[in-house]
Amino acid sequence: MLDEWARNSKRSRTVATRQANSSWAYTQSLFQPELQLHNLELSAGIDRAKRKLPAKQREAFELAIIQNIAIPEAAKLAKCTTDQFRDRLYRARKRLRQLLRSFQQSSSLGHPTSVHARPKKKSIDVGLTD
Prior knowledge:
This protein is mainly alpha-helical. It has a domain at 30-107: Arc Repressor Mutant, subunit A. Helices cover 75% and strands 0% of the residues.
């Protein structure tokens, strides 16, 4: 019971962090047209890659990743065992990685690191040391 609470708590923090990072990246991309173009190309690439997945793998990816449904519940919705569902999700992620790598290599923009990395905070010297 305690383990389940810890997993759910960790999942909530992870989701909140992802949402904060994605909103920060979105805000940054509003002021950089080349990043807007890259994001549009990336979104189109992800959609094309998802369409290339087999139906059962696409369903597993949509349920677990896009809709953020817990694996046991998603397995029930997909009418399969939890192990089968995890296998489908693993294979979907693996195939999407392959497809997106080929997209990244063929993309004209490359990988904009400024969207994914927050600027480092500068430390302020207040002069308290001797």
